[in-house]
Amino acid sequence: MTQWFAHNVLRLPELASKNGVGVDDLMVYVHLLMFALFIGWIIYFFYALYRFRQSRNPRADYAGVKNHASNYLELTVAAIEALLLIVIAVPLWARNESHFPPADKSTVIQIVAQQYAWNVRYPGPDGVFGREDMDLVSDTNVFGVDFNDPHSKDDIQTLNDIHCVVNKPVIIYVTSKDVIHSLKILAMRVEQDAIPGLRIPLWFIPDKIGRYQVNCAQLCGPGHSAMSGGFLIVQSQADFDKWIQSQSPATSSASFE
């Protein structure tokens, strides 16, 4: 029911991840609460116009309201808001933060944001990322990869294209080369700030094959709109494996200029 309301009434963007259902549910409940408050205040507004009209109250009553109905109503609204926060929002956040899927059963990706593109790195067919050293970071090596490490020989790097497997957890480690960016994939209901000097993980489980736009949710400069040129491509395992095999191992980062 909540999903029908989310997509047919609220007109939320397409949902293509399993863990995005909780996010949509929370938005539906918040909107329902706001709708109930809106209707309630409209009814009260017209009641007040009728109840305290001049013809019925020719002289002001300085005693004021003697009952506590408004106090009880305010407490009820506060209790519902606390319920949404404690029962839905906090557990949803805690589950996403503390229950990361195992890396060996996930598609693990590294992303370095920069003005104005997304640098993406995969471990290659061996499933192991090559060694990195921040002293090696340069305009042509934004990940700081040590290309002398054997594990880096088959690592793959792309620009603006993020490939993953349907119904398989995806773990993305996000950082930034320059200013603060924010990786936002609406269809997956995930968003994470990309902060220079920090590598922050996020995860989701895509459940629908397709091509989904990636946006930057932080104003990162005059070319900010170009950050929407990235895409998440959700594929079958067979198509993903073919794509991996078709890519040439990186000998340097394809840094965007």
What order do the strands of the largest sheet run in, or round the barrel if closed? 3-2-1-5-8
Estimate nothing, just give the exact number of structural domains: 2
Please report which band the strand proportion falls in: under 5%, 5-15%, 15-25%, 25-35%, 35-45% or over 45%.
15-25%
Total count of helical runs of at least 4 residues: 4
CATH topology descriptor of the largest domain:
Immunoglobulin-like
Identify the CATH class of the largest domain.
Mainly Beta
- Total count of strands: 10
Helix-strand category:
alpha+beta
The rounded distance between the terminal residues' Cα atoms is 47 Å
The biggest beta sheet is recorded as: 5 strands, mixed
Cα Rg: 25 Å
Q: Share of helix among residues?
A: 25-40%
Write the element-wise H/E pattern from the N-terminal end onward.
HHHEEEEEEEEEEH
Q: Shape from CA axes?
A: elongated
What is the averaged pLDDT score?
A: 88
